[in-house]
Design goal:
Belongs to the malectin family. This protein is an alpha+beta fold. It has helices at 2-48, 55-58, 108-111, 166-170, 242-255, 289-306, and strands at 59-64, 70-71, 77-80, 89-91, 113-115, 120-125, 130-138, 150-155, 158-164, 176-185, 188-191, 194-197, 201-211, 215-216, 218-223. Helices cover 30% and strands 27% of the residues. The radius of gyration is 30 Å and the shape is elongated. It starts with a helix and ends with a helix.
């Protein structure tokens, strides 16, 4: 009987050892799988956001409206206008003018344009999720005062630029970029705090208003954030320093019973840029949660099993 009991003890110990080894293998496989999944998600997010790519490589679509193809100083390849002969009218009236704030090599992007007597636009195919930027290039080369050409810009039905008056913004024959960030995640387009269903096509529309015809000189869509967009050259005297604006507001407030004066046309203007946090923005820190759960649950279980 003693030998039988001894043999039974060795048998149970052998079973415990096999069970412990099996649990170790299962735990290692689960943790390895979770780590691989997290690394894959991080890699996909990095790719979707354009990490590691040059500016030209991040651009997925670019058109020189009303003009021929052109490669700018950043390597962005602007294609010839696909609407040529189909919709609207092309104009090279600006070719006779030098464009301020633009490099000499890229003035052509502000000197040609496409306009239409009604609302018109472009369709941009987007197949990958991620954060994107729409950049629209403008220059007023005809009118010499404000309130002569005013229009809106829509992105898949969302008004992203309201009452755009190029002359009022920067003056005559001066480059101006409207920059609109947006994101596409889980089949949804998120732009300036608004969300809608996305079907793989981004429609950029220039909306006919009460003052003349809508137009655009060039535009492109790129992966990335606002910090990735090239800035135009500074224009001395174009905008007042923030300190001067604050002093003027204070003085106006004192003269009119504390009421601040709002410049005409600025009340209804929608500035380019996000107004509220993006509800579909990825938080990479949350991707580590599965790993913490794995280590917090399986490792204590493993130790308990090994001590049986």
């Amino acid at each position: 009987m003693g030998h039988l009991r001894l043999g039974s003890g060795h048998l149970w110990k052998g079973k415990d050892h096999c069970l412990c080894v099996a649990m170790q293998r299962v735990t290692a496989q689960l943790v390895a799988g979770l780590i691989a999944a997290v690394l894959s998600l991080l890699a996909e997010q990095c790719w979707a956001d354009g990490g590691g790519l040059s500016l030209a490589e991040r651009v997925i679509w670019a058109v020189n409206s009303g003009g021929e193809s052109h490669v700018d100083v950043h390597g962005i390849n602007f294609k010839k206008d696909p609407l040529e002969g189909k919709l609207g009218k092309a104009s090279d009236y600006g070719m006779r003018l030098p464009i301020l704030r633009s490099s000499p090599e890229d003035q052509i992007l502000y000197q040609t344009e496409r306009y239409n007597e009604d609302t018109f636009g472009y369709d941009v195919p987007i197949r990958e999720e991620g954060d994107y930027i729409l950049v629209m290039k403008y220059a007023e080369v005809y009118f010499a005062q404000s309130q002569q050409k005013v229009f809106d810009v829509r992105l898949n039905g969302h008004v992203v630029v309201k009452d755009l008056d190029i002359f009022e913004r920067v003056g005559h024959s001066t480059a101006h970029d409207e920059i609109v960030p947006f994101s596409i995640r889980r089949g949804k387009l998120s732009v300036q705090g608004e969300v809608s269903t996305f079907n793989g096509k981004l429609t950029v529309e220039f909306v006919k208003g009460y003052y003349d015809n809508p137009k655009v000189c060039a535009l492109y869509v790129m992966k990335g954030t606002l910090e990735d967009v090239p800035k135009l050259q500074p224009h001395p005297g174009l905008e007042k320093p923030e300190e001067e604006e604050e002093e003027e507001e204070d003085s106006e407030g004192g003269e009119e019973g504390g009421k601040k004066k709002v410049p005409a046309g600025s009340k209804n203007r929608v500035q380019s840029g996000p107004r509220t946090p993006n509800p579909y923005a990825a938080d990479n820190s949350s991707l580590m949660f599965p790993i913490l759960v794995a280590f917090g649950v399986f490792i204590p279980t493993l130790f308990c099993l090994c001590r049986l």
